[in-house]
Amino acid sequence: MPKRSYVEEALSDWMKGTGPDSDIVISSRIRLARNLRGHPFPMLATIQQAHDVMEQLTSVAETGKLNDLGHFDTIELTDLNELERRVLVEKHLISPNLANESRCGAVILSQNESVSIMVNEEDHLRIQCLYPGFQIQEAWELANRIDDIFEEGADYAFDERRGFLTSCPTNVGTGIRSSVMMHLPGLVMSQQINRILSAITQVGLAVRGTYGEGSEALGNLFQISNQITLGQSEAEIIENLHSVAKQIIEHERAARQRMLEESRVRLEDRLFRSYGILSHAMIMDSKEAAQRLSDVRLGIDLGLIKDVSPQVMNEMMVLTQPGFLQQVFNEKMTPEQRDIRRAELIRQQLNCKSDHGGV
């Protein structure tokens, strides 16, 4: 069953690679919102109307033109249970909004999980492309190719003056949401983050948490994305994000270097202490796990903690989420049971992936 690998493997194949500035930029993402002309938007559609849209869009995916970009599987949300949908959310393969759509939603996934095409989410079609590191232009080029394939087989709702028509007014125009997921512990620890984030919002960008709008920035992970979709071209939107992200990278690198130069022992104590706690703790909630995994990831990137790869940290960020924990251990858990299992899983992973205690 094609869905099995998508819900059982924590680390997507695309996450196993590295990209430019991957010590700070975890991933780059392009998401395009599209709707079909003559069909009610998902929030207004009847079950039959939503089903018609799903059939039309999945049939485009099955024409074979997507195969030039790799192998794709179509999974209907009705074929997934609640836990499996939650796992796909935790892997950023579907949105929380689509996970709640149990009637006529679907997702078309590339085998390496770098492409996720959501059907009947907030809009009829959401094309998402993910790349490791700072590769926003590469993500855009792939998303644009996929968009062309669907546009050939479907009549998009488009207005000459307003651009692509979408359910939410903030997506009207290009329908593009370009974003980078950034690990910014240096700016947080040096108490510069609020000033930086305030400046970001002044240039038309938004700052969100790990799972997008309304979510918390756990583990010093921040999603930076464009707010404006109307009145600018895709190239201008991407260039603005690229320029600002480059500046944030420079600020983060400078903050890390200052901590090394001015308070190295204190920094090492914090990072090694987090490593020790992760290696031996018997119970740990998700918020503490995210923070301590962030510390260890920083120690790895600074060359202070040896024999543990950044990919292991990426994997544990997913493995320790509530849904994935229950999937791994194949049991429904109370919050306290999840905290115990989370600590157990982290201990196992760190002991498996390091040769000499990791330091």
3D structure, described in words:
Among the domains are: 1-11 and 32-173, Creatine Kinase, Chain A, domain 2, CATH 3.30.590.10; 263-351, no CATH class. Helix content is 46%, strand content 15%. It is built from 13 helices and 10 strands. The protein has an 8-stranded antiparallel sheet, with helices on one face. The protein has a two-stranded antiparallel sheet with strand order 6-7. Helix 3 (82-90) crosses helix 12 and helix 12 (322-329) crosses helix 13. The two termini are 41 Å apart.
What topology does this entry show?
Layout: H1 3-8, E1 25-34, H2 47-61, E2 72-76, H3 82-90, H4 96-99, E3 106-110, E4 115-119, E5 125-132, H5 136-153, E6 158-159, E7 163-164, E8 176-183, H6 185-189, H7 193-201, E9 205-208, E10 221-226, H8 234-262, H9 264-280, H10 286-301, H11 310-319, H12 322-329, H13 335-353
Antiparallel strand pairs: 1-5, 1-8, 2-3, 3-4, 4-5, 6-7, 8-10, 9-10
Helix pairs in contact: 3-12, 9-10, 10-11, 12-13
Please describe the structure with a list of short key phrases separated by commas or semicolons:
359 residues; eight-stranded antiparallel β-sheet; Creatine Kinase, Chain A, domain 2; single chain; two-stranded antiparallel sheet
